[in-house]
Design brief:
Number of domains: 3
Radius of gyration: 33 Å
Number of strands: 13
CATH architecture of the largest domain: Distorted Sandwich
CATH superfamily of the largest domain: Glucose Permease (Domain IIA)
Shape: elongated
Largest sheet: 8 strands, antiparallel
Order of helices and strands: HEEHHHHHEEEEEEEEEEEH
Helix content: 25-40%
CATH topology of the largest domain: Glucose Permease (Domain IIA)
Strand content: 15-25%
């Protein structure tokens, strides 16, 4: 019984209100007072801590507060940024070397009195064989059979969607993350030099030009063939909604220096379905 009485007394005391007052030291008079119980005081402290935590969470989520703190960026993040910068430089050097080799080969052909080879210089770093392989009789027969097949005919409707898409790449850079709808990546992510130009892939009309905390500056363009292209994580957009753009026209710029972790994202949609940009554009 004594234990039960002690528990009852303790329970009664934590809910019993106490008088909390502020007394003037000179006149010994009360200038302010209130009545609080220990439970009310504890709940007030919890509420104050929750409000402070919520304010800090909003500041971290929607402001660059963490970037201002010294030592916030980890070694892994810095190493990733250094690796991306190195890949961009290597890709640029390899493109220049390929251009130089093609130029030297054409000079040799001109000196020998031959016609230089006309080839479009690829903007990526993937090497390819430029030689022309004459088709064999078996290859010609197989090609004729496939072209006559209704499923693979050149005039079939299955290839209509792809034939109507003629686009240029939206930005000079390298593809860092490829299309993967299974993980929710409905386009590609590209790494480039800071403040690189972002261009429209084809003629169309701007249907969205806005800024969001998740996507930075976002531009969406509806093209004449019913396709939509989306350009996310732009540092700035120079087009507005309703603006008519042409293919290769500059519509914005990629992330500025110091925001390498916000990579440019590009998506293509048609008929409510995402398309793999690398299927239609040579990056």
């Amino acid at each position: 019984m004594k234990m039960f009485e002690k528990i009852s007394l303790w329970w009664h005391n934590i809910f019993r209100k106490r008088r909390v007052a502020i007394i003037e030291p000179d006149t010994n008079t009360e200038s302010w007072y209130t009545h609080l119980s220990p439970v009310a005081m504890a709940m007030s402290v919890v509420a104050l801590i929750s409000i402070i935590f919520g304010v800090l969470l909003l500041l971290v989520a929607y402001t660059p507060l963490l970037d201002m703190l010294p030592g916030y960026r980890t070694d892994a993040t810095r190493s990733r940024q250094t690796l991306i910068s190195a890949l961009i430089r290597v890709d640029s050097l390899e493109r220049k070397m390929n251009d130089m080799l093609i130029y030297n080969e054409n000079r040799i052909l001109v000196v020998d009195g031959k016609m230089p080879a006309i080839s479009s210089i690829r903007s990526d770093s993937v090497s390819s064989d430029k030689s022309i392989v004459p088709p064999s009789a078996a290859d010609s027969l197989f090609r004729r059979q496939m072209e006559n097949d209704r499923r693979y005919a050149l005039n079939s409707t299955s290839g209509q969607q792809r034939s109507t898409i003629s686009a240029v790449k939206p930005m000079e850079g390298i593809v860092a993350e490829r299309f993967n709808a299974k993980i929710g990546l409905f386009g590609i992510r590209m790494a480039s030099s800071p403040e690189s130009q972002v261009v429209a892939i084809a003629d169309g009309t701007v249907v969205t030009s806005e800024w969001t905390p998740e996507s930075g500056h976002l531009v969406a363009i509806q093209h004449d063939n019913g396709m939509f292209s989306f350009y996310r994580n732009l540092s700035a957009a120079i087009v507005t909604k309703g603006h008519r753009v042409s293919g290769s026209e500059v519509i914005g710029y990629s992330a500025v220096e110091g925001e390498e972790d916000r990579m440019f994202e590009f998506e293509m949609w048609m008929g409510g379905k995402p398309l793999n940009p690398e299927t239609y554009i040579l990056f």
